[in-house]
Amino acid sequence: MTSKVTVALAGATGSLGVAVLKELLAGGVSVTVLSRKGGRSAEKLPTCPNQTIKEVDYAMEEDLTEALTGIDVVVSTLATESISAQSALINAAIASGVTRFIPSEFGSDTANTKTRNLPVYKHKVMIQDDLVKKAEQNPSFSYTLIFNNAFLDWGIRVGFLINPKVRTATLYDGGDRPFSATRQSTIGKAVLGVVLNLEATKNKGVYVHDGVITQNGLIAIAKKMDPREWTTTTSITAQLERSGYEELKKANPDIGKAMYGFLTRAIWGQGYGGNFTRRVDNAVLGLPVLAENEIEEIVKVAIAAPSGKNNVEF
User: Where in this chain does the record put each NmrA-like domain (predicted)?
Assistant: First the structure.
């Protein structure tokens, strides 16, 4: 099946961007990859008949507007440090007649008031507010926010959820708190699902996951493969949140340390919306919710995969 909807993808060469691009192209969508001028990362992307690469200066709205001419949907998978660059991208999208903008959300439930107020999501919330305002002012323009909570396979591979390579884990709030987790490939399929269901996903947040798990459950699966004992420590997310605020008050705060604490609070904290069971939108986007045995197989594959760089995205 080939979609008539045209998509521009910002951040296509990042870890998540590659997964999103793969699923869009597999779904028959025509994709324009926005590559930063002067950069060479886009050269690593495989060639595909449905793919076009355009170099842009993200600081110049005129440049972006020209690149987005003829595009229906803009998808941003820009990394944390580039989140604020989406403001110019949004303005250019409106100027060029884009009808849907999917920002670089892809994480915790920032529609939840407690999560929304955490400093780690300050820039994401600013972009959300800007999108809501622009959609109200421009009836032909709309947005979709995609929430997926924790990255499943990636989170295991980099040792964030658990670290199977050395059999260690930091158990947040005891390790028995159920939380939603999602593979990057599923996030890519969710983006495709939005592109193919624009009316049903207009001006709202959609919630997707592969399933709900616990950290201790992940360790139990790992022990089926390797029964040796694990070394675990326990960390209380409420304390991590308090410590994060204290860190930010310092003259020279460790920003990464503070934000990491806020992130764990959003994923595992009671009342922070990390379990999507009651609101999951998989069916709207044509995505299955996986059975327990399917989750177990995914975890086994992730455990067996080579370790990645532990650069946790906020």
Answer: 4-224
Check if the beta carbon of residue 87 is closer than 8 Å to that of residue 242.
no
Check residue 163 and report its DSSP letter: B
Residue 27 in tokens: 């779904």
Residue pair 284/200 in contact by the 8 Å Cβ criterion: yes
Hey, which residues does 102 pair with through a beta bridge?
75
Contact 111/43 with Cβ under 8 angstroms? no
CA distances from 232 to 49, 174, 216, 293 (A): 49, 10, 10, 25
Up-side HSE of residue 158: CA atoms within 13 Å toward CB?
13
Q: Tokens 């946790």 sit at which residue? A: 312
Give the pLDDT confidence score for residue 82 in this predicted structure: 74
SS3 of residue 232 by DSSP: strand
Point out which residues pair with 226 in neighbouring strands: none
Cut 0.85: pTM above it: yes
Q: Answer for the pair 186, 281: CB distance below 8 angstroms, yes or no.
A: no
pLDDT single digits (tens) 74-119: 999 998 777 778 999 999 999 999 999 999 999 999 999 999 999 9
Per-residue pLDDT tens digits for 294-304: 999 988 888 88
DSSP-assigned states of every residue in 173-217:
TTS---EEEE-HHHHHHHHHHHHH-TTTTTTEEEE--SEEE-HHH
Give the position of tokens 């670089």. 104
DSSP state of 290: P
Summarize pLDDT for 20-54 with one digit per residue, the tens.
Answer: 999 999 999 999 999 988 776 667 777 788 899 99
